[in-house]
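Hi U.,

Before I forget, here's the chain from the pilot set. I'm dumping it here mostly so it's searchable later in email.
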Amino acid sequence: MNPLFLRMFIISLFLCMIFSFLSNAEIEYLGSVGGVTSDVVILENPAGWEGCYAYVAQGACIVVLDVSDYENPIVLKRLYPAAESIRNLSISGARLVAAVGGSGAYLYSLAAPDNPQLLAILPLSAADEFREVHEARLCGSTLALIDRSWGQGGPTSARRYYRRLYNISDIHHPITISYVSYSSHIGHTNSDFLYSYENESGDWNFFWYNSGYYPTFYSWIRESSTTSIQLSGGLEDPPVGMFVYQEKIVAAFANHISAYTISNESVVSEIASVTIPNIVGAPLLDGDHGYVPILDGLVAIDVIHPDSIQIEEALPLSFQPRVISNDVAYGILGEEGLVITKLHGSNAGKVNHFFPDFGSAKHAAWNGSELAVMTNAWEWYPSPSANEKYRRGNGTISLLKPLQDHQFELLSQITFHTPPGPILLTDRDLLTPILSDNQFVFQIYNIENPKQPDLISHLPIPDVSFDPDRNLSAAAVNRFLYIINSILRIYSLVDLHDISLQSTFDLENETRATTSFAIANQYLYYHKNNNVFTIDLRDPFQPQYFGRFNEEYYRNQSFSPDDVLSSDNHYLFYADNYYDESTIHIFDLKNPTWPSIVSSFEIAPNSYGRWDSKVRYTRAVEDITPQDSYLWILTSDANMLAPPYHPFKPLVLVDISDPFQQKELAQWKIGREVRANGVVMNDLYLLPADQGGLYVFRISDSVISCSLYWPLLK
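Structure:
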């Protein structure tokens, strides 16, 4: 072999090794699992293709379905625009747009309807970081976006809306048609509708309708001119919804349907009306027929005649459809997924359900072999009454087995008549607190056969008041259940193999509620009043209390966010959230009785930290999840109701391979619907995201490519 050739090969190999050590870990978003189904749009017989395609918004995912055989839909692809719930979908021609909150609007090409391709992301500008795209509508080459931001007091206060209109004939150079902002208050009907129709010359016309204090049509815009014309005329009452047939507007109200036209003088005039009682949803158009949802089905109407509306028939239907196409109705049932049925024929009314996996993800737990995901958790009312402390309705816990490519097999589901609380999981047991006869109890299931969970016992929890998430902290490790009740200020231990074996321990008369604790190496660490305490659990039924070990960090934080504790058995991680800063302390557990401080670091200030009323609301730590030599840290606004209300909760990845020199490696913006309950499952990090489902991340190394090409040696 040529010595020069050999030297070149060795030098190249050495450089590749050096670069690999310099590579940085990054956050890789793999997608979502489950989620609440929120919208569906249909594409029928697109140009050059045959068949029917459905695009379904499920949590943070767009599911592409071939529904040519409506009884046997085929999943073709899943798209994951961002780690944020999709608000709505809109389709026009061969384009699809998705409104994805603070992440902006995502525009896809449907030239190949079975394989949508991302054309562009229309983000909010840096100046608009407190806004989210609430709704997107596509009409020909015109894109309409409704942005929303929160006012003073966050979600309980006035909203501000921004209506943006663009011509996107050239997607790389969009033209702004109009921009309007306005405000509203919760409790007052205020919504926008964008409607469109194609006239005989093939030109798109569309208009806004706003139902606020004074319901009125706003503007009529002809696409070719990219200008808006102010309309005159309004409605006495806000409609439930409307559609456009040719150049006739059909609006549905509570007990009647009315038709309107827009004259050349831009005047809206009523031309017909018909009484239909008990209207519950927006009317839908399928060809030359309209359908009006009522309490127990649909009323079909004929809209062909230019100056009248005629009732054709009443159809029984068990759900309210979102779209009707070619006599097939598509409905959205939220947690229960997508439903499809034929309106006429031999199979009329036969409902087909799809998406059998779980819907919302409120909480998750992993025991090394099964993943448990909870939907429909309890929701605490800000002002609970004696009869309405928690959201009503059934709750579900799904047991799943992980498969390849972050997919799961559903093993079993446990259904509750009242929403359950956080899940605790061991190799043998699944526990969840529920409200039963106005008292909280732990229901304990044996899951040694995960396909058939067996309810084995109930464990009463004394004196837990309106908000158990704040008044009750619990963990299940091996065969023991550990509970801290901040109302009674006691620590309890229960042997899950024999629940008659219990012990309690007084936590002293501290005033601030305990909101989290960590267990490591048979020691329990909990915090109160910004102090961390140790309990020796080596003899579970004779615990030893050792008091606080971090007095130097004490300060009064009555108005600060809750602190967070976590551990990986080698180190204890304590997030000290205090007004305008959040500091994470790392303690070495070599001496578990009195952990020693190793280092402290602050999460870098986020872009939306600000001064307001002399209080700086920046980032607070909500959750810390260790994974090998990394920390997953979920953060949010320090004051959840701080003005303005930000749409994101940043996820931060920190390298602690050297605990003395931590390194923040990456951040990922996540919709604020996520819950502070991260779970590490093998090499994945799972984050429950409420209606968004379960978000799936992993740590990915960004390695410099070192592929070498060598010619054949002869």
